Description:
The structure is a single chain. By secondary structure, the chain is mainly β. The chain has one domain (9-41). It contains 1 helix and 2 strands, in the order ββα. The chain has a two-stranded antiparallel sheet with strand order 1-2. Strand 1 (9-17) and strand 2 form a beta hairpin. The chain is elongated.
Amino acid sequence: xxxxxxxxxxxxxxxxxxxxxxxxxxxxxxxxxxxxxxxxxxxx
Length: 44
């Protein structure tokens, strides 16, 4: 059952380049939906 005050969570998958090998890896995070824009805007 969903409650009116429950938070909505989403999974964010980013492709990150490995500096040592030059290959790409996938980074997965589960976060509240309202923080997704801030997380994607930040460069890591």
